[in-house]
Design a protein that fits this description.
Lysozyme-like, single chain, alpha/beta, disordered N terminus, two-stranded antiparallel sheet, 21% helix
Length: 228
């Protein structure tokens, strides 16, 4: 069973760890206000370790300088429930790809690959400011998948117009819970990775790196929701 971590902030931090037998162990951890502020994202949403098989990543040797945002779903195979987590996890297995984090519609954060390993999420592409990264951005980046669906035009390569019309309107785009969790996760990543600059040059969409073949996170993603 996946391990769920829920941490409540008091004057000290109480860590509630749900074990596989569903027993709850309470541990008191001393933490300064500065530490609490730096790690606040951990306490706002459920964080789930749901690691992909080790062959879906490799050892990291380069410095992390970028974060790439994606969307993922299973809309082409399950229009009634495009965000079934188990089905989406199996898509990573089937297509032999990966990302470091995935954020579901409720804002819960899933760690799929540890940051000290390279995930296979970017593929081929280029960055104008970093020509030396051509087709190598995996080596220098953290990948974050949000459960989301783009416009009909953005989804045309993976599903028919008829399938798109079957989708419930609330499944299209992204949720405010996702934006909140994304901002908290980004703040934590920035705090631990000083080489990632807090700007739109170093936080990018997949569609900016590979515009000829990728459309995510797409035009429905609200970049103005991101806090730098």
């Amino acid at each position: 069973m996946r391990n769920f971590y829920i941490i409540t902030l008091l004057f000290s931090v109480t860590s509630l760890i749900a074990c596989s037998n569903q027993e709850v162990v309470e541990v008191q951890i001393e933490a300064s206000p500065a530490t609490i502020a730096a790690e606040v994202w951990e306490y706002q949403a459920q964080v789930v370790d749901w690691f992909l098989p080790v062959e879906h990543s490799k050892e990291r040797v380069e410095e992390i300088t970028h974060i790439m945002l994606h969307f993922t779903n299973n809309a082409s195979r399950n229009t009634a429930n495009p965000y079934d987590l188990d089905e989406i996890y199996q898509l990573f297995i089937e297509y032999e790809v990966s990302a470091h984090y995935m954020i579901d519609r409720n804002g819960d954060v899933y760690m799929l690959v540890p940051e000290d390993r390279v995930a296979f999420h970017a593929g081929q592409g280029t960055l104008e400011a970093y020509p030396e990264y051509e087709n190598q951005l995996n080596e220098y980046s953290i990948g974050i998948e949000l459960l989301g669906i783009g416009t009909k035009e953005e989804m045309v390569s993976i599903m028919t117009d008829e399938q798109y019309e079957q989708l419930s309107p609330e499944t299209i785009g992204f949720t405010m819970s996702q934006y909140r969790s994304l901002n908290e996760l980004l703040a934590d990543i920035y705090q631990r990775n000083s080489e990632i600059k807090r700007d739109r040059i170093h936080l990018i969409g997949h569609d900016e790196y590979a515009p000829e073949r990728k459309f995510d996170p797409g035009s429905l993603f609200e970049w103005e929701q991101i806090q730098f």
